[in-house]
Design a protein that fits this description.
alpha/beta, 7 strands, two-stranded parallel sheet, 54% helix, single chain
Length: 272
């Protein structure tokens, strides 16, 4: 396989979210017959021999940064030695969106327990922006050199959902705690929330902010820390788009290869 063919396969699948089978059909229309297993094998061999070296180097460089983002999303892997329906995840770690030389790293894992980010971040000392998932907070409590910063987009989301479901143009909504909370989050001014039943939607939104308060305040302590984890979520969009097309990954090896390929593709795109 030539470098041009390998690049074409990677671009079709990992950048343009096309299943390999569709690429097979494109080649067949040009009287070129390349079976899907052959192209997958070629792509995986090139990833293992060449792109993994770049991935490993980027992972080393990750520890030199001051601020990172982390997130995860489910992925279906058909043959990984576990019962059908078991949860598998693709994790993403990326540098801050304001970095001059940003990069993105995917990592496939069989679950979402604390061991996975604990291992990935073991040599990183700085600030990691995340959603409210508790395993990040657990790891931060274990270490003095790691700070977890919360995401205000997640804090805002439940308030926004309540306002949206009610209709934000109604006067009663504009006078509600939820509407005011949205304004407060936008301006970051302190506001007395009053008493709301904890099981109501508004109460749950407020409880989230209270429970996440220490993490949501981190951005106030360091100008390099963004208010949200949107950068990590945006880095997952190409993967989730591709997942809709190819639905599942066949093996663990394929999942790990996909993690490397998406890392290289998204890092290249982040630098443009």
């Amino acid at each position: 396989m030539t470098p041009f063919l390998a690049a074409g396969i990677y671009n079709a699948k990992y950048v343009n979210a096309q299943p390999i089978q569709r690429l097979v059909e494109e080649f067949e229309r040009c009287d070129v017959f390349l079976p899907e297993p052959t192209m997958c094998r070629w792509a995986n061999v090139c990833l293992d021999r060449y792109l993994k070296l770049i991935y490993d180097r980027l992972r080393e460089k990750l520890n030199d940064y001051h601020v990172l983002h982390a997130d995860k999303t489910p992925v279906e892997v058909r043959r990984d030695g576990r019962p059908a329906g078991s949860k598998r995840y693709m994790w993403v770690y990326r540098t801050g969106s304001l970095e001059v030389h940003p990069f993105v790293l995917y990592e496939y894992q069989k679950g979402r327990k604390a061991d996975y980010p604990r291992q990935f971040l073991k040599n990183f000392g700085g600030i990691c922006v995340t959603d409210g998932y508790g395993v990040y907070h657990l790891i931060a409590r274990e270490r003095k050199d790691l700070t977890i910063a919360g995401c205000w987009s997640h804090a805002r989301r439940e308030f926004a959902d309540v306002v949206k479901s009610t209709g934000k143009e109604k006067r009663s909504v504009q006078e509600s705690i939820c509407f005011k909370a949205l304004q407060i989050i936008q301006t970051m001014f302190r506001y007395e929330q009053g008493h709301v039943a904890p099981k109501m939607e508004t109460g749950r939104a407020i409880s989230y902010c209270i429970n996440q308060e220490s993490f949501l305040r981190v951005f106030l302590t360091d100008g390099a820390v963004p208010m949200t984890n949107n950068a990590a979520e945006q880095s997952f969009r190409p993967f989730t788009l591709g997942r809709k097309n190819w639905y599942l990954i066949d093996t663990i090896g394929g999942a790990k290869s996909s993690a490397i390929a998406y890392s290289i593709a998204e890092t290249a795109k982040a630098k443009t």
